[in-house]
Design a protein that fits this description.
Immunoglobulin-like, 4-stranded antiparallel β-sheet, mainly beta, 16 strands, 2 domains
Length: 214
């Protein structure tokens, strides 16, 4: 049992009003799965959208599975781009939702999709990522923030350009369509950071390179 009362600047206190707090558990499983629509197919990606799963809770997160294995992180979005696929390959895609009580919806009906072959006319890599920068936070740690300007390509939209981010020759992260700041923990001494851009035909740019010292 909780009590609420008011108190003025002079210290006078009102009578108590009782309040009862109760948390209602979500015990209902979503009754239907999403209905999936394929919106775009590329040589190494598939774009999907879907209808919400039906549930008494309106706040669901969704996950895409490829050939029966989870492929994307949970997200409240009703669309996703499934990346890192192989060209000219058939995939079985399904989507299911999870409510705030951690109850999963049924899977959507599976959608069979065959990726396209790489563009035979695309032989030119994207431009090298520009304005690559890296800086530490100056608090005695080697935490480093890295960012760059997105590349352009003669065939692919910027959203489909892949960036591979390396620290001292070791791959740290793969991003698509983004030069957003990424955080990495460097080593004491000299560190070399490289970022390359790759289009959907597999053409890779020369690396952008920056050196940082700790």
């Amino acid at each position: 049992m909780a009590f609420i009362y008011a108190k003025n600047a002079g210290g006078d206190v009102s009578g108590q009003a009782s309040a009862t707090t109760r948390t209602v558990l979500d015990t209902t499983t979503p009754s239907t799965g999403p209905v999936v629509t394929v919106t775009e197919i590329g040589s190494n990606y598939v774009a999907l959208s879907w209808t919400p799963a039906q549930d008494d809770c309106p706040f669901l997160s969704y996950q895409v599975s490829v050939n029966g294995s989870p492929h994307t992180s949970l997200s409240p979005n009703l669309s996703a781009i499934v990346r890192l696929l192989s060209p000219e390959t058939t995939y079985r895609l399904t989507v299911r939702g999870r409510d705030e009580g951690n109850h999963w919806s049924p899977f959507s009906d599976p959608v069979s999709v065959t990726t396209l072959p790489p563009n035979p006319n695309d032989h030119t890599p994207p431009t090298t990522p520009a304005n690559l920068s890296a800086y530490g936070f100056g608090d005695g740690s080697t935490e480093t923030q890295v960012s760059w300007t997105q590349s352009t390509d003669d065939f692919d939209a910027q959203s489909n350009i892949r960036y591979d981010f390396y620290l001292n020759g070791v791959l740290q992260e793969v991003l698509f369509g983004s030069g957003r700041p990424s955080t990495v923990y460097a080593e004491f001494g000299e560190n070399t950071i490289e970022v390359t851009a790759t289009d959907t035909a597999g053409n890779t740019s020369a690396p952008a390179t920056v050196t940082i010292f700790f």
